[in-house]
Specification:
The protein has 658 residues and is of the alpha/beta class.
């Protein structure tokens, strides 16, 4: 994640935090908004959450002089109040020279009162307009820099723990001092200085360590950190002073360095500390894959497992460890996959995620096996899959789901498939289920019509600047499948950022986010764009939608999907239609059908295994924060199958603006 501190360190932006402004170095910057001229005096601001907003101070132009000093102050107050309300990252004022004196007093006073970070820049608004589109490149470069630093840390470790000594500790101290452009000291009250970089570091830290011994909880400055190397009671400390205040990246590097130095200093903990660093690198690689940054993920993994992710196609497996200790299963899994696959401890659930390179085939169209190499079909398990299956079958509480073969850039979709397969795994004797090879909705839609309809529905998102567009689409896709807290952990962002981005997407699309049917059509459009891309705008999106779902292939798919429900005498499709039309609320469905809520829940429980889809997260009425009861990956095909065969529920084919 790119922070304000990172941007301040980039000379291209020429940013400085105004003296007296609240701490802001660790604030995340998702986008830059440049407000030209005096437009911010009167125009609506729109959505500015997590944005860096750049203006020039009032009083600089004829329009400002004509508006009068009081009106300018009122405009500034309105702007700052709105930025503070929306939790914008910060306000940047374009000035001729840095310093608080260059910023109008009204802006400084309001920013301080509203606790809004305030910065100055000597770049013009025109220059900022040219810099803003490059934010994605800075973000990618920053992520790669952090990954490279972690890889550099690992490269400084010996091949064997027996070779770990003070020389290794010095190499780590040199690396950290260079990475943070600061000074590093590793010391112990009894053993003295263990490592120092540069050689003058002991003199720099002597008064700080003395002050800390008097007041252990005191923090000398935002640029300094003291991190114990071992458990409670140990006096061995890593002291770091950096050129600029610590942001998340600097804090993470210091934390990793402290772990590695503790490993070196305490032989009994060495293996575990190295394993932790490797796990974090693997998690970073997985999160990069989840946002479509496969090239960056390959670079992250190169120091650990050269060539592991240099494959065009992969499968994803998800092992649910239930309530058991995941570490036991993880150790078994790591031995099983060795260096043939990437195993990650899921940051959101008690799961293990395995990304297995598909070395023997490509997905092509998984239903046209002629498109694959001889002997390879979408259902062919790998040695990794068989090894994982043996582990799962040996642990009665565990289950595993696996995806179809996907391109490396489609790991997010493969993860979704594997996670969905878990719902079927618990019903199988070996508790292992692979994503079925039956046709999916997106596979039977007419591509040309589907591309045109999806492109029209998602047009407000697809026409955003590339960095913002990709960010929102990735978050929207995952945020419609799992809880926002889980989505945030999987993507490496805060849950509030997920919620904010989701709200922004639905606002741009002109759709009510709380409507389940709206969520369904948006999710379907996303899947179409991911699978087939998108075409130019349609002149009649409703006609496109009708044509798209009316072709014989869709009708046949829908009838096949719903066929297992026909043998039940309780008219399950009727209940399912009413459930969808009542936003998946059990109580409202029961009222509409004049049956009991218990009967509705029973029908849902019966229908789910018949159509091989998980439909609900919670049928017992225990609500969860920021969560819906439905599972969209199961509800989406159900809604389209019912619509294609009965016309109900009525799916919104285009946004309805206010």
């Amino acid at each position: 994640m790119l922070t304000l501190g990172d941007m301040c360190a980039e000379p291209d932006f020429s940013l400085r935090i105004v003296d007296g402004s609240p701490p802001a170095a660790d604030r995340v910057v998702d986008a830059v908004r440049v407000l030209p001229g005096t437009s911010w005096h009167r125009d609506p601001l729109g959505d500015a959450g997590d944005e860096l907003v750049v203006i020039r101070p009032f009083g600089d132009g004829p329009a400002d002089r004509q508006s009068g000093k009081d009106q300018a102050k009122q405009a500034a107050e309105r702007l700052l109040r709105e930025l503070a309300r929306q939790r914008a990252t910060a306000l940047v004022v374009a000035v001729d020279r840095h310093g608080a004196a260059s910023v109008p007093a009204a802006i400084r006073i309001s920013a301080a009162r509203l606790n809004l970070p305030l910065l100055t820049t000597t770049k013009s608004l025109q220059q900022w307009s040219e810099l803003a589109p490059r934010l994605r490149e800075y973000r990618r470069r920053h992520a790669e820099w952090q990954a490279e630093q972690l890889a550099a840390l690992l490269n400084r470790l010996p091949d064997r723990l027996d070779d770990a000594d003070v020389a290794v500790m010095q190499r780590v101290a040199d690396w950290l001092a260079a990475a943070l452009e600061g000074e590093v000291l590793v010391s112990d009250p009894q053993r003295g200085v263990l490592a120092a970089s540069p050689a003058t570091a002991p003199g720099t830290f002597a008064p700080l360590l003395m002050a800390r011994s008097v007041e252990p909880s005191g923090a000398p400055s935002p640029n300094t950190r003291f991190v114990p190397l071992a458990g409670a009671g140990s006096g061995t400390v890593l002291a770091v002073t950096a050129r600029r205040p610590f942001d998340d990246a600097g804090t993470d590097l210091t934390r990793h360095a402290a772990k590695v130095l503790g490993l070196i200093d305490q032989a009994g903990r060495r293996h575990h500390q190295v394993a932790d660093a490797e796990r974090e690198l693997k998690l970073s690689a997985f999160q990069l894959l989840m946002i479509g940054e496969e090239a960056a993920a390959q670079r992250v993994m190169a120091p650990l497992a050269p060539g592991l992710l240099d494959m065009e196609f992969v499968r994803v497996y998800v092992i649910d460890c239930a309530d058991e200790d995941r570490e036991i299963t993880a150790r078994l899994g790591e031995r099983a996959v060795a260096d043939h696959a990437l195993l990650v401890r899921c940051p959101a659930f008690n799961h293990l995620i395995v990304i297995d390179p598909a070395r023997d085939g490509a997905p092509g169209n998984t239903y046209d096996t002629s498109a694959m190499p001889s002997g390879m079909t979408s259902g062919t398990p790998s040695e990794t899959a068989e090894a994982l299956r043996r582990i799962v079958t040996s642990l009665p509480s565990h289950r595993m789901g696996g995806s179809r073969v996907r391109e490396l850039g489609g790991v997010a979709d493969a993860y979704e498939e594997a996670r969905n397969a878990l719902a079927q795994a618990s019903r199988l004797p070996d508790r292992v289920a692979l994503a079925e090879d039956r046709m999916h909705l997106v596979d039977v839609l007419p591509p040309k019509t589907a591309r045109r309809w999806a492109g029209t529905l998602l047009h407000p998102l697809l026409t955003l600047p590339m960095s913002r567009r990709d960010q929102l689409l990735r978050t929207l896709d995952l945020g419609l499948e799992v809880r926002h807290k889980a989505a945030g952990r999987l993507l490496g962002i805060h849950r509030n950022t997920v919620t904010h981005r989701m709200n922004s997407c639905f606002d741009l699309l002109g759709l009510d986010r709380d409507s389940v049917l709206n969520q369904i059509v948006v999710s379907a459009a996303l899947k179409i764009v991911i699978a087939h891309g998108h075409d130019d705008l349609s002149t009649d999106p409703e006609a496109d939608f009708v044509a798209m779902v009316s072709v014989p292939e869709v009708r046949a798919w829908a009838e096949s999907f719903l066929h297992p429900l026909k043998d039940d005498p309780r008219d399950l499709p009727r209940t399912l239609r009413a459930w969808l039309e009542n936003d998946t609320h059990v109580e409202s469905t029961a009222t509409a059908l004049d049956i009991s809520p218990a009967t509705v829940r029973a029908h849902l429980r019966t229908a789910a295994p018949l159509i091989q889809r998980e439909l609900t997260l919670d049928l017992d009425g225990d609500s969860l924060p920021d969560d819906d009861e439905h599972v969209l990956s199961g509800v989406r095909p159900l809604a389209f199958a019912l619509h294609a065969t009965t016309g109900r529920p009525l799916l919104p084919s285009r946004p309805v603006h206010g």
